[in-house]
Write a structure and sequence with these properties.
The protein is an all-alpha fold and 88 residues long. The protein has three helices and no strands. It is globular.
Length: 88
C-alpha cells in the first residue's frame, strides 16, 4: 500500500505532525515549521514518538523496518519527512 503523492509532501507531513502534537498536547502557540525542534521544545515524549511513527507510517503507506526509526529522526518535521521518503 503506497500513499498518494500529495500525502507524501513535506507540507502534508508537517500538517499531520502539527495535528498530532495539538491533539496530544493541546493547542500550539504558533504553527510548526519544517525545522521546529520537536524534542528540544518538549513537544513529544517517548510514548508519543511511537504513536507518531505509526501514524506517519499509515499516512505514507509504508512499514518501516524494525529499528529503522531512531529518536534523532524525530528532531524536526523535515527530518521525519526525509526518513519516511526513504521507506517509500
Amino acid at each position: 500500500m503506497t500513499a498518494a503523492p500529495e500525502a507524501r509532501s513535506l507540507e502534508a507531513t508537517l500538517a499531520l505532525i502539527e495535528a498530532f502534537v495539538a491533539r496530544e498536547r493541546g493547542a500550539l502557540r504558533e504553527p510548526l515549521t519544517p525545522d521546529t525542534e520537536l524534542l528540544r521544545l518538549g513537544l513529544l515524549d517517548s510514548m508519543q514518538l511511537a504513536r507518531l511513527g505509526r501514524e506517519l507510517a499509515g499516512a505514507f503507506g509504508v512499514t518501516p523496518p524494525r529499528g529503522a526509526l531512531t529518536v534523532e529522526d524525530f528532531e524536526t518535521p523535515r527530518r521525519l519527512w526525509q526518513c519516511f521518503q526513504r521507506f517509500g
